[in-house]
Amino acid sequence: MADEPAPERAAARVALGIDPGTAATGYGVVRSRGDSMALVACGVIPTAAGMPPSERLQTLYVGLLGLIDRYRPTEAAVEALFFNKNVRTALAVGQARGVALLAAAHRGLTVAEYAPLQVKQSIAGYGRASKEQIQRMLPVLLNIDFVPEPDDAADAVAIAICHLHLSALARVLRARQEGNGANP
Q: Is 19 a catalytic residue?
């Protein structure tokens, strides 16, 4: 019986999920290898309420660069901006998103964007799931005995998991399409 080559271990992927905001930007770092996921870190980058907007954005930028340098993610995901009735809030979140996209690009990361409905669908199987339902699923998916806190951090962890799920599925589908194209 001939020796069979050892199966290749799936390369680890590390996703940085970002829930942008000017008061606090949530982050979640999740490592995926094969079918298992592990929470590496999560938290928020806070800014002081009295700071001028330019300084708040600079704080977010420097904080995100520090996280990327510390945890070395292989990719990043940001929550897509959804329509908000409060125009001031929507503009502020849009500015924080821009800073997040810039920081990730500055460090050479590919960045995916997901709508809140996509994140909820990926985590709970239902696009209109409540925040509580999403938070209850995180410990199950990550095999941890706590819910990441605060809410902004939990949202960012959910964004990272969503990205790992959906981008892995996209890779499988692309590989199948390429395989079918080669064998008509």
A: yes
For residue 1, being part of any structural domain is answered with: no
pTM over 0.85, yes/no: yes
The one-letter amino acid code at 155 reads D
Which structural domain, as residue segments, surrounds residue 157?
13-182
CA 9 to chain centre: 23
Mind listing the pLDDT tens digit for each residue in 127-170?
999 999 999 999 999 999 999 999 999 999 999 999 999 987 76
Q: Quick one: which H or E segment has residue 171? A: helix 151-182
- Measured CA to CA, the distance from residue 154 to residue 152 in angstroms comes to 5
* Among 55, 152, 155, 178, the one annotated catalytic: 152
Could you give the C-alpha distances from 146 to 16, 40, 99, in angstroms and in order? 19, 14, 30
Low-confidence ranges of the chain (pLDDT < 70): 1-10, 83-84, 170, 172-173, 175, 180-184
**Residue 115: is it exposed, middle or buried by C-beta count within 10 angstroms (0-12/13-18/19+)?**
middle
Q: Which domain CATH number covers 97?
A: 3.30.420.10
Asked about 79 being catalytic, the answer comes back as: yes
Single out the catalytic residue among 35, 79, 113, 132: 79
56 Cβ contact list (under 8 Å, min separation 6): 22, 47, 48
